[in-house]
Amino acid sequence: MKLKLLALLVIAILPLMAFDCITDPSSITISLNLAPFNASYGLNSGSSKTYGGSVAIDPTSLYDQSYTLTGASVYDITVATKGPDDLGNGGGSVSVNGVLLFTYAGSWNQFKTPQSLLTSTLITRNPAGVATLIAAVTGKRMVTFTVNGTITNTPSASNVDFLVVAAYVQAYGHR
To answer: What are the DSSP calls for 125-162, one per residue?
Structure first.
């Protein structure tokens, strides 16, 4: 009898309890994997031992536009060299929207294995550059990567050797 009375009491109280139900999908924040920001910089043959340039990327082209972004974070940035030549020692800087993102230094061949901002001693990041990248992504503004670099040996052929910068960003948002 006590069990029946307790069951009736619970059934009577349930409708009075304030359970929150999710009725608005915009209140659910989900992770959005953005495609990587990839920027490549070709090196020209000749006597110049400097290279660089700018590449602009629209962050809205990297995710489904039906989502509203509420935040973002950088989870890695890599720099790598491609091509057959050994261009000796060198280094340079990478800026994002005019703010230094990181510097790099070492031999060209060390960078043939992509160097990660997380683990490489050849890269030094600038927190202000990371913040600028995040602000551009969440503000849906163009992201422009600018590279200025030097090498000790010149390339043997035009646009065979190049530098690749890739930024990996995780965004958060809702529909």
So the answer is: E-HHHHHHHHHHHHTT--EEEEEEEEESS--SSTTTSE
Tokens of 128: 């202000």
C-beta separation of 140 from 65 below 8 A:
no
Residue 96's DSSP bridge partners are 99, 145
Q: Which pLDDT tens digit goes with each residue over 28-76?
A: 888 887 889 999 998 887 888 999 999 999 998 988 888 888 899 999 9
First and final C-alpha spacing in the chain: 51
Q: Count of CB atoms within 10 A of residue 87's CB?
A: 24
Where are the extended beta strands (E) located within 83-111? 89-96, 99-107
Helical residues (DSSP H) of 89-126, grouped into ranges: none
Task: Note the CATH number of domain 28-174.
Answer: 2.60.120
pTM equals 0.82
